[in-house]
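thought: user wants a sequence for this fold. calling inverse folding tool.
action: design(structure=
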């Protein structure tokens, strides 16, 4: 069986990475494509008191378990199944549940700091960076954290000022230089999405996979 394809999708918090990832999966129209969220690989802080957990910097590279993420991606690319952690954003810790992910032809990894680790970058066939203005990203983050994570406006803005913005400038924005393609407009950039779909099918053909059968045209 040929080596599976790994696509990286990076960008700042609220840039539209998740929309791009889901759009690619939907447009490819196949169950052989799976999305892996870097957020699932936050370090497990279960033994840390809640108030200390809440005060942690979750936008720094040290917040992520890169060892486990690399291990899981290598296993997926070799065709093995994994048990992906499930992260609880409200409790700032992993749950006792896991998500079983089995054999897929295309793995889409999305996260703010996936290009920080050179070993991860070396595994990727395509590296995308989703670009968005800072005010747009902040508005999206406010909306998401208010509606989906039950946070207060004050806590969201405090976290943005204390860690999200400075970590973006120090780590996330500079990682743009590792991208093969920079996507302005996120998931609404149909031209960029179509180019990525074409490249994925080309890579499959190069590895001896019938792209038309594996990823039927949507």
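)
observation: tool returned 218 residues.
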């Amino acid at each position: 069986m040929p080596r599976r394809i790994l696509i990286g999708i990076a960008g700042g918090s609220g840039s539209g990475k998740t929309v791009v990832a889901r759009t690619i999966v939907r447009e490819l129209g196949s169950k052989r494509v799976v999305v892996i969220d870097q957020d699932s690989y936050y370090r497990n802080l279960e033994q840390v008191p809640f108030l200390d957990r809440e005060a942690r910097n979750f936008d720094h590279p040290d917040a992520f378990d890169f060892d486990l993420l690399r291990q899981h991606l290598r296993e997926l690319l070799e065709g093995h199944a994994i048990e992906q952690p499930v992260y609880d954003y409200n409790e700032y810790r992993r749950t006792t549940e896991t998500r079983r992910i089995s054999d897929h032809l295309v793995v889409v990894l999305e996260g703010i700091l996936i290009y920080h680790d050179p070993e991860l970058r070396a595994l990727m066939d395509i590296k995308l960076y989703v670009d968005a203005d800072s005010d747009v990203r902040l508005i999206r983050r406010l909306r998401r954290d208010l509606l989906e994570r039950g946070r207060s406006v004050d806590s969201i803005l405090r976290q943005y000022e204390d860690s999200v913005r400075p970590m973006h400038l120090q780590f996330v924005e500079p990682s743009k230089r590792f991208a093969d393609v920079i996507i302005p407009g996120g998931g609404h950039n149909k031209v960029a999405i179509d180019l990525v779909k074409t490249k994925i099918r080309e890579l499959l053909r190069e590895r001896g996979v019938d792209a038309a059968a594996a990823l039927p045209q949507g």
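thought: summarizing for user.
answer: Here is the designed sequence. The chain has one domain: 5-209.
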